[in-house]
Design brief:
Length: about 400
Amino acid sequence: MNKYLAGIGFLCIGAWWGGCSSRPTEEPMATVVERGLERAVHQAQLMAEKLENQEGRLPKTLKDGELETSDYSWWCSGFFPGELWYLYEATGNPALKGYAEQYTQRLEPVKDITYSHDVGFMLNCSYGNGWRLTHNEAYREVMLQGARSLATRYNEKIGLIRSWDFNRQQWQYPVIIDNMMNLEFLLWAAREGKEPRYYEMAVSHADKTIRHHFRPDGSTWHVVSYDTLTGEPHVKQTHQGYADSSAWARGQAWALYGYTMMYRDTQRKDYLHQACKVARYLMGHPRMPEDKVPYWDFDDPKIPDIPRDASAAAIMASALIDLSRLADAEFGKQCLAFAEGQLRSLTSPAYLAEAGSNGRFVLMHSTGNLPGNSEVDVPLSYADYYYVEALVRWKKLQEEENKKNIHE
């Protein structure tokens, strides 16, 4: 038994609701989703109450068993406000809307940040969901200013948005696969602000990433650094994974999500092809655990006695639900079935925290940066965000299907 998940019998994940047998009764998926949302609401309200009077603070993780927070400048700052917006959307609870507004406001200074590519994570998850649900004009203005700030990190010659500014002795112009996630923000700004150059930036970044970031099997390096004179890669590495040649789980999930989103927002078939290629790689991986929650890196030789990454599973599930609507019918069914398996696992006692526990976070067993010995086997704010997003996406998809069946 994996020491990181000791005490949980994964191979019979249905046992805790129906008794472990050779053919356990499977709980209806709608019940799984509602239980997950109910628990997320409970935990999020506790978290919001905990930090309400701590000016400017936002939840990050647990460190030595204690809640660790950040201010607006940390890359994860937008996830908790975004989670609150999703929970408000799912429930209509006005208290959740009030908290979402309160914690979103704490990110307002992000609009002027030019030293980080993560402005898209920070503002799109918080202000973006707020704008989508309320059309508050003040949110729109913050986002458009944030897009102007993010655009300063784009280099016309290289055709990519620069990710990091550190480690300059090794990297000339580093771009990480995570950066695909910031393109949704630029595409929104291109439409809403009538700035076609933002669209061109996003497409150029996605195109260059397909060309240089992926291996033939569909897996991705984490970091590709480009020569500033030639615009061509000079280094390919996996900074937060086991090795440069390995498949770091969350990096693969970012790739899946990023290209699914790029197809949805541009209708470019090459992006759909790339999303499907990554999905096939992940869903068919021989070292994907039976419960479909990945190990932190698919190539760590110590498998199975290594940490899982619930955040990678949550990101994957959310992306696969989206992809199930965009891909052809047969592959779409495979994507949705896999995502449902992930949500069943994440909503089981193996990963879903008991009410009031886990430092008020929703999910357990995520891994941030194992090589850096940082955030290993802990809750993470982005695991909760993408888990809740996946639950909301599944619920919406099911509602659409029900309406379609009624009309037919």
